[in-house]
Amino acid sequence: MKIDLTNPAWRQTLPPARTVAADAPVAACAFSRDGTTVAFALGDGCVRTLPADISAAVPAASKPVHGGAVLTLVADPAGDGFVSGGDDGRLLRLGPGDTTTELFNQKGRWIDHLAAHRATGAVAASVGRAAVVVTKDGEVREFGPHQSTVADLDFSKDGSRIGCAHYGGVTVWSLGTSAPPPRRFAWRGSHVALRWSTDGKFIATGTQENDIHVWRMAQATDMRMQGYPAKVKSLSWTADARFLYTSSQPVFTAWPFSGKGPEGKPPLQFGEEGAGLLSVVAAHPAAEFVAGGYDSGELQLGDIKTRRSVVLKMADGSTVTCLAWSPDGFRLAVGNERGDLLVVDLRR
Question: Structure pTM?
Fold first, then answer.
């Protein structure tokens, strides 16, 4: 992938993109496992799919798949479709050709967070105070209840465990058949976002108290990073786990986790201020780039190596709600509160 943010051409022109207007806010977006399709979860119950190729014809609008708002969506780790969750309590597998398979249904309980593990084909969903894991073969297992609603969840690197964020900290469950008791990592307050590091060594959370908390899994020691002007709702680890990117700052903010880690060190901050705070961050799946969407609607691409950033989309007043990289790292999907569905092509 050839992206050079020191090249004036990258700073003078916006990359080619496709924008499609939907009729409802976008809650989540994802590229299919094979990278050919991108899907957007909408507040009107629809999942809208678009070709990843921005020159391809746009298909007709998708039909509603949930009885209420679609709250979350991920690429199907067991196929080339998607898995969605909604406020109707349904967890659905959306396959090619508009096929829909119900994986789980519990009326009255929202499914608002999902995690997928590509190697095992499993999907985990937050369902009230519990977490539900659906295996590749369709087996459903429930973990909990936790002391409060599960606010986010994620798989470990090898897929053998899930971590669940809730009030008072994080609970980690083993998914084995002879599972030991869950491990609990305590820290006061509400934990609203969770991401397991890509090397499996750390769990990071964003909290209601405008900071982030990180635990070392092996030693069960923890660290707290403060000074954010708002709740940190978006976390993203680099592919090599050297840095953790966080939202809720006016510029890209990366905490270093190589060597002795971030204790006693300030974060790396770089890029141009986006006339507001970063609402979503997404590290590139392979290279040293990071995408960031702002509450002003601006979209930027940052390069931690050169400490530069460029604008990919100008501010338009609608908060960016989701970002997703294609598997090959050449395209970026973007959704916002107004219902704009954007696919940016970074090949130049």
Answer: 0.95
